[in-house]
Design goal:
alpha/beta, D-Maltodextrin-Binding Protein, domain 2, six-stranded mixed sheet, 11 strands, 18% strand
Length: 340
């Protein structure tokens, strides 16, 4: 006897579609949530890396070193191209960045003058707080140098001679807001001396003036001085540092030579334009956090006597709010005029 067949009720088209949607929704909710790459920022064209000095200046040299490390280590999917925007001791570069509001492919390497310049210039319209600080990378001691055949073997000998002939001796340097000029003014006020300051837009021009005998002294970054110290064309007479650098254990600091002035190191970091999108800011902070962990970066710091001064975005933005009042006090102590 044949078994009776069981007739199952047929599902309508609407019921089938509703069931499929429920299944899809359930699978979606059950799946782990991962951030989509497309929702973040990834560079798609060459990066413009702005510096405020001409070729051979401290920021120019560091920016090019970073660019070379990026290429060598393949840290970016695009090239990083250094763009020199000298003028006004950083004011021109800051103004240029101010015009790039919301841009994601333009960043700049800042230094002390990006804090000092707006304080010392009535024409400045952009400060660090209008821009987007991303990270701080390094702090950098300095050295005081003369030509190798100079009669001065110590900073004190130079200053004593400047006292005897006020305004006759000359120092080459960058802008009036640079470390070169601020340290000069601090020493002159402390010692009761006076010598001239000759400003040049690029580090190469400053060194050429010294080697050509057109000026008598220069305060510079160790990375700028390196090759000239090695070939014997320059002589060290002091260092701008809290304590003697391991590379120059026999070279006294400015303070050790009798000048009671605050120590003034150069700091360098990266800043973006105003209103940089959050996803781009996060990308660049992460990128530079990776850069400073590479062996090539650590070697560059050691070879050029940099000190690790890394700060992430939150920390450097806090620093950028708190640092200008401290700089203002130092400028006033140096006898320099401030407008803010």
């Amino acid at each position: 006897m044949a078994k009776p067949s069981i007739q199952r009720p047929r599902r309508g088209r609407a019921a089938v579609i509703a069931g499929a949607l429920c299944t899809t929704l359930a699978l979606t909710l059950a799946a782990p949530v991962t951030p989509a790459r497309a929702q973040g920022f990834t560079p798609t064209r060459p990066i413009e890396f702005v510096v405020h000095t001409g070729p051979g200046g401290g920021n120019d040299l560091l920016a090019r070193a970073i660019s070379n490390i990026v290429d060598k280590e393949k840290l970016l999917p695009v090239r990083m191209q250094v763009a020199n925007k000298p003028g006004g001791g950083g004011i021109a570069a800051m103004s240029y960045m101010g015009e790039k509001k919301g841009e994601t492919h333009t960043i700049a390497l800042f230094a002390n003058t990006w804090y000092n310049g707006p304080l010392m210039s009535k024409e400045a319209r952009i400060t660090m707080n209008e821009l987007t600080p991303i990270v701080r990378l390094v702090t950098e001691p300095g050295v005081v140098v003369v030509k190798s055949d100079s009669p001065y073997r110590t900073l004190k000998e130079f200053v004593d001679d400047a006292k005897k002939q006020p305004g006759k001796l000359k120092q080459s340097g960058g802008s009036i807001g640079s470390r070169d000029n601020i340290v000069r003014n601090l020493i002159m006020k402390n010692a009761g001396a006076n010598w001239a300051f000759i400003s040049f837009p690029g580090g190469g021009e400053r060194i050429a003036a010294l080697l050509g005998g057109h000026v008598n002294m220069m305060i510079m970054d160790p990375q700028e001085a390196g090759d000239r110290l090695r070939d014997g064309s320059l002589r060290l007479i002091a260092q701008v540092a809290e304590k003697r650098l391991a590379a120059y254990p026999n070279l006294p600091t400015i303070q050790e030579q009798g000048y009671n002035i605050p120590n003034y190191v150069t700091l360098r970091g990266v800043v973006g334009p105003p209103d940089m999108p959050a996803e781009a800011l996060k990308f660049w902070e992460s990128f530079f956090a990776r850069l400073v962990k590479t062996a090539a970066w650590k070697k560059h710091l050691k070879d050029n006597l940099f000190e690790d001064g890394y700060m992430g975005t939150a920390e450097v933005q806090k620093f950028s709010r708190e640092h200008p009042p401290q700089v203002r006090d130092m400028l006033l102590a140096a006898g320099l005029k401030v407008y803010r």
